[in-house]
Amino acid sequence: MRTRLLIPALLALPLAGCISFGSKPPPSLLTLESDATVAVGETTSSASARSITIAVPGVPQELAVTRIPVRSGDTSVAYLKDAQWVETPNRMFARMLSDTITARTGRIVLATRASLVDRGARLGGDLRQFGVDANASAAVVVYDATLIRDRTDSAEGARPATALEKRRFEARVPLSQITPAAAGLALNQAANQVAGEVSDWVGR
After folding, report:
1. CATH code at 133?
2. Which residues cross the membrane (predicted)?
3. Domain count of the chain?
4. pLDDT digits over 138-153, tens only?
5. C-alpha distances out from residue 92 to 10, 72, 165, 178, 200, Å
């Protein structure tokens, strides 16, 4: 009986070294930091400031992860070794848009629920690229934005309430070397550039 019990245990030993419950995390994780500064303690009111709701951008499957894609051709995508975001890039980019638009336009950025009773603007879109172009040695951010202007504009005769505008924004930042740290900094710079351009497009 004792021999029977030992055999399954001994057979399991070689398999234990083959089983992995997840890849080893990198020494540190990457995040995005907005260049725009939102004033602490400053109160804004919808009575005097316009509002806007910012949706988390949609992403292709290659960006629905916390890794940095590296494109070496039109149809070839790999991921940069040891480079990992703290969360998916579209959620971090949405917060960067929120901080940038708040700081540069003075608009009030609303949560989705609050926007149901507000007649402010709506910003949405797709984050098409957020990674490294290996052939050009550059960090690339491409955002296809859609904007519905404040619905109150129609009352002023400026534009129809349901008019939708669409624009592509793109930023490229050169990379001297393709490493996690360099790619993270370059993508942060490119994302800030796009966020600034989107903010100017939205306006006050």
Report:
1. 3.40.50.10610
2. none
3. 1
4. 999 999 999 998 765 4
5. 48, 25, 23, 22, 20
